[in-house]
Amino acid sequence: xxxxxxxxxxxxxxxxxxxxxxxxxxxxxxxxxxxxxxxxxxxxxxxxxxxxxxxxxxxxxxxxxxxxxxxxxxxxxxxxxxxxxxxxxxxxxxxxxxxxxxxxxxxxxxxxxxxxxxxxxxxxxxxxxxxxxxxxxxxxxxxxxxxxxxxxxxxxxxxxxxxxxxxxxxxxxxxxxxxxxxxxxxxxxxxxxxxxxxxxxxxxxxxxxxxxxxxxxxxxxxxxxxxxxx
Length: 230
Description:
The protein has one domain (4-224). The chain has eight helices and no strands. It has helices at residues 4-40, 45-81, 86-120, 127-133, 137-167, 171-186, 188-197, 201-224.
């Protein structure tokens, strides 16, 4: 029987390629931005620091997508074919995604405290931009919490899409994507008010928490009943 430690080893074997690739991309982007902004065009240091933040934010979410897709499409079928206990596999996938989101969120918090709050703190009329750039500790932890919830939702949602395709058929993946896009379109006014004025901010947090819980349950059920197809 495959232990939880062996499951984690398989997960890391798939994961290390993504980590290395994104680290190389991050270093290249930062190096190019440093050469162009600081050395060639003599831009202020805040311009270079903002590029670091933007690159980290985008690549961190890309990493969560790659991790969710890779583990769901590669690791889950492979371990299932080896008669891995599906309960352990489901729990390990959910917990590993949570741990990686927490690690990425912690790095974001460090960047927020020591770079954004120190060098980029500013005021803005847009709610999310204001709390993102604010040096206030309450705003700092608020935007960090939002960053974590959105990141974990991204992981859960893409894992859900892949497991849905593997379990019940890839045609349902398109339906799931259209449902999400349609919901965003119908709630476009509310989303705009949230982003600009912060209207319904608490409800937004509650919705993200509920969605993450539901997706965790669905993904666990998918893996628990997953059957390897030759």
